[in-house]
Design goal:
Its EC number is 2.5.1.141. It is found in: Cell membrane. Belongs to the UbiA prenyltransferase family. Protoheme IX farnesyltransferase subfamily. Converts heme B (protoheme IX) to heme O by substitution of the vinyl group on carbon 2 of heme B porphyrin ring with a hydroxyethyl farnesyl side group. One of its GO terms (cellular component) is plasma membrane. α11 packs antiparallel against α17. The longest helix is centred in the C-terminal third of the chain and has 28 residues, at 287-314. The chain folds into two domains: 25-177, Orthogonal Bundle (Tetracycline Repressor, domain 2), CATH 1.10.357; 179-315. The chain has helices at 3-9, 17-30, 33-48, 56-80, 82-85, 103-124, 127-148, 155-159, 161-164, 166-175, 180-203, 205-211, 216-219, 222-240, 242-245, 251-272, 287-314. It starts with a helix and ends with a helix. Helices cover 75% and strands 0% of the residues. The protein contains 17 helices and no strands. With 315 residues, it is mainly alpha-helical.
Length: 315
């Protein structure tokens, strides 16, 4: 038998590497890796500033658990939101609405990773951290995704607590409990989330309106959303300085936090004062809102990097 005939029958047919990689990338996309990166970073900072000592292997396992749990929540979110994701341009290419991953597959993937991450966290560190990890998954899935997101314009305010848990979880993974420093870090993320996400929703409001999701710009209008963005940014500024004011970060942190906070506040002011029509719609294609969204990411990452560096350098 010739080589050609064997190839025709598939005996020597090469693996479809591009297809295999595409399938892997779809499963990775379910984990919302960009969100995961920020979650892991803030959780790692919570661990880094916690008192006491933990073996570096256990620290890596704890960080892995936080990452897996974040991805698990993202996968379940994509399973539940597949109907609205399909009609939003920003999310229509996700693997579930595109049919590349079956809904039940996404759900099973998310549930399996949830159980695995919580169990591993409990066995590797302590069950206080594991219970907090389970609580963060449950809050994101049941409170935000299934209850708040489609019912109230305050969805991202209350639901944002899920994304603020990682510093507390990281601290608990080392100490077995909680304290004021991780709670302050929780508050920073909690207050940061509305201006961050509403900046995005300003230039993606048509998507939310099409999907019937009551985001603030859809329900209260863009003018009120701009006002709320500025209010939250103004409240966030002094809270960002709280680690220094409360004595668990030094003056170097205070300088960085003040600079980043002022930059973000200025970006939010530009959103508020953006040229608008009578109904508050941007005449600049929401350029300030897009800029504020980018600044918000740098702001939060910078705040947490500064507090970690302050701890490592100055103790």
């Amino acid at each position: 038998m010739s080589d050609a005939s064997l190839t025709t029958k598939g005996a020597l047919a090469p693996f479809d590497v591009s297809s295999d990689l595409s399938e892997v990338s779809d499963w990775v996309a379910l984990l919302k890796p960009r969100v995961m990166m920020l979650v892991v970073f803030t959780g790692a900072v919570g661990m880094a500033i916690a008192p006491g000592h933990q073996h570096w292997v256990l620290s890596l396992v704890a960080i892995l658990c936080i990452a897996i749990a974040s991805g698990a929540a993202g996968a379940i979110n994509m399973w539940f939101d597949r109907d609205i994701d399909a009609v939003m341009r920003r999310t229509a290419q996700r693997p579930v609405p595109m049919g590349r991953i079956a809904p039940n597959g996404a759900l099973g993937f998310g549930v399996t990773l949830s159980v695995f991450s919580v169990t591993l966290m409990g066995l590797a560190t302590n069950w206080v951290a594991a219970s907090m990890l389970a609580g963060s998954i449950g809050f994101y899935v049941f409170v935000y995704t299934m209850w708040l997101k489609r019912r109230t314009p305050q969805n991202i305010v209350i639901g944002g607590a899920a994304g603020a848990f990682p510093p507390i979880i990281g601290w608990a993974a080392v100490t077995g409990g909680t304290a004021l420093p991780p709670i302050v870090l929780f508050l920073i993320i909690f207050l940061w989330t509305p201006p961050h996400f509403w900046s995005l929703s300003l230039w993606a409001h048509a998507d939310y309106e099409r999907a019937g999701v009551p985001m603030l710009p859809v329900v209260a209008g863009q003018k009120e959303t701009r006002r709320q963005i500025l209010i939250y940014a103004a409240v966030l500024f002094p809270v960002g300085l709280a680690p220094w004011a409360l004595g668990f970060a030094g003056p170097a942190y205070a300088v960085v936090a003040a600079g980043l906070g002022a930059w973000f506040l200025h970006a939010c002011w530009k959103v508020f004062s953006d040229a608008q029509d009578a109904e508050g719609r941007s005449l600049t294609k929401d350029a300030p809102a897009r800029w504020a969204f980018r600044v918000s990411l740098i702001h939060l990452a910078g705040i947490f990097a500064a507090i970690a560096m302050d701890h490592w350098i100055f103790g």
